[in-house]
Amino acid sequence: MLRSKKGLSPLIAAVLLIVVVVGIGAVVTGMIRGMVTENKATIDSKSDEMVCSRDVVIGVLNVNSNPQICMGTDYVYAILENTGSATIDDFQLKVFGTTGIHTNESVNDTVNFAPGSSLEFNATFASVGAVQQVKIIPKLKKSGESGYNYCADTGITYESLEDCPI
Questions:
Q1: How far is CA 128 from CA 76, 92, 96, 110, in A?
Q2: Which residues have C-beta within 8 Å of that of residue 16, sequence separation ≥ 6?
Q3: In a domain, 69, yes or no
Q4: CB–CB of 93/99 below 8 Å?
Q5: DSSP of 55-101
Q6: Number of domains comprising the chain
Q7: Which of 65-70's residues contact partners 24+ apart within 8 Å by CB, and which partners?
Q8: Cβ(77)–Cβ(69) under 8 Å?
Q9: Which of 67, 62, 63, 61 shows the shortest CA–CA distance to 81?
Q10: Is residue 73 part of a domain?
Q11: Which residues constitute the domain of residue 114?
Q12: What are the residues whose beta carbons fall under 8 Å from the beta carbon of 5, sequence distance 6 or more?
């Protein structure tokens, strides 16, 4: 009987050692999995930002050195060109005036403004007094998520627009 008790202690010690090692491994695996998931989201976000700064280039079409952009009392009209290498999904229009700011979140009825193509842009805005500045900001769909990335650095800003001919 005494011998069986002595033989049992090393067996219990080995089982406890295995349980402790497996437990520590599970905790470490859980921590690493959490960090990898968190970092993947950050990498996706930074990747979208790099696409904006590297691949999104828009401009206003020039005909005989005249930019094809003008403004009415409550709208902005322009012919835009996508000279970058990314497909643009939508635009945001910001109008800054003497009495307020108007933001039009979605102004593109055409899906997929492809590289090398042109787009007739006609967006309305609410009264903001005398218009001081207009910004047209491209938007790209976020990769793997819903929502958009705003490419504000590659947008177009005009501070004085001619009136559109009637």
A1: 13, 16, 7, 27
A2: none
A3: yes
A4: no
A5: H--EEE-EETTEESEEE-SSEEEEEEEE-SSS-B-EEEEEEEESS-E
A6: 1
A7: 69/158, 69/161, 70/161, 70/162, 70/163, 70/164, 70/165
A8: yes
A9: 61
A10: yes
A11: 56-158
A12: none
Residue 44 domain flag: no
> The domain that contains 83 carries what CATH number?
2.60.40
Residue 67 lies in a domain: yes
Chunked into runs of 10 residues, the chain (166 residues) has average pLDDT values of: 60 88 93 79 62 85 90 90 90 91 79 86 86 91 79 89 84
Cα 124 to Cα 84, 87, 143, 147, distances in angstroms: 26, 23, 29, 22
* Token pair 């402790």: residue: 20
Predicted pLDDT at 5: 58
Q: What type of residue sits at position 159?
A: E
- CA-CA distance, 123 to 93, in Å (whole number)? 7
Tallying the residues shown for the chain, one arrives at 166
